[in-house]
Specification:
Belongs to the AB hydrolase superfamily. Epoxide hydrolase family. It contains 12 helices and 4 strands. By secondary structure, the protein is of the alpha/beta class. The longest helix is centred in the N-terminal third of the chain and has 14 residues, at about 35-45. It is globular.
Length: about 270
């Protein structure tokens, strides 16, 4: 946000409902991707902003692309980091991964709550940052919980400080993890039908950029490399993909200067 603002842009980054400093919904289990898209549109309307660049990390990119399908006239361009655009059929394929796959485990009501509930929020965040900074896809054994994949003595990644951990831990201590489990995991297969769109051809024509680390565990999902090489362009005809060889899933934290420069280059090329 600081780099973008210093370059002369207006940077807006709301906490999703149920995350960070936002209010926790009365019924977190009913929160949906559609709610987050509607929240985004409402914020833009309240600020009288007619057109934006959307930048999304991880499932924020999923929200961003649903927003793009609903409001193409508001989109100047879209950048995602860590997770590329994935149409419904690609998301369905994730359900074919083993039962211990972290997304499937966290979709199961009560399983993640019990797993997370053994620790304070700071410890949960610590384990998640360690777990997802590796290149292996997190898959637990039958009688093993996801957070037990991280040894208690495992060190934080070098680019994630104890101060970072304190800040993130305090944020989740306030919000809890109920909404975070509902969106994205338990609403992952939610069917959303944007107006005036062929549901079998969810195409976004605006300029788009996907930045991924070659050490990102998501890059190692079955079929992901083939999809990025030969499948994704049918949905995003104006897509550019940039690979960072040494980067993990936490590209912005690991390489902030590099990430900022790539974002600014894209914004300048597609200024409107």
């Amino acid at each position: 946000m600081i780099a973008v603002a210093k370059a002369g842009y207006r940077a807006i980054a709301p906490d999703y409902r149920g995350y960070g400093l936002s209010d926790v919904p009365a019924e977190p289990e009913k929160t949906s991707f559609a709610d987050l898209v509607a929240d985004t549109a409402t914020i833009l309307a309240s600020l009288a902003i007619s057109k934006v660049f959307v930048i999304g990390k991880d499932f924020g990119g999923m929200v961003g692309y649903i927003f793009a399908l609903f409001f193409p006239e508001k989109l100047a361009g879209i950048i995602t980091l860590g997770i590329p655009y994935m149409p419904p059929e690609a998301l369905q394929q994730l359900q074919t991964l083993p039962e211990g796959f972290y997304m499937r485990r966290w979709q199961e009501p009560g399983r993640a709550e019990a797993d997370f509930g053994r620790f304070d929020a700071k410890t949960v965040v610590r384990k998640i940052y360690i777990l997802f900074s590796n290149s292996e896809v997190p898959i637990a054994g039958e009688n093993q919980e996801i957070l037990d994949l991280v040894e208690p003595s495992a060190p934080l990644p070098s680019w994630f400080t104890e101060e970072d951990l304190e800040t993130y831990g305090a944020s989740y201590a306030k919000s809890g993890f109920l909404t975070a489990l509902q969106v994205p995991y338990r609403s992952l297969l939610e069917r959303i039908a944007p107006p005036n769109h062929d549901p079998n051809a969810p195409i976004v024509v605006a300029p788009s950029l996907f930045i991924t680390g070659e050490q990102d565990f998501f890059f190692n999902f079955p079929g992901m490399e083939e999809y990025l090489e030969n499948g994704i362009k049918q949905f995003l005809p104006n897509l550019e993909i940039i690979y960072i060889p040494e980067a993990s899933h936490f590209l912005p934290e690991q390489f902030p200067a590099k990430t900022n420069q790539l974002l600014l280059d894209f914004l300048k090329r597609n200024n409107y």
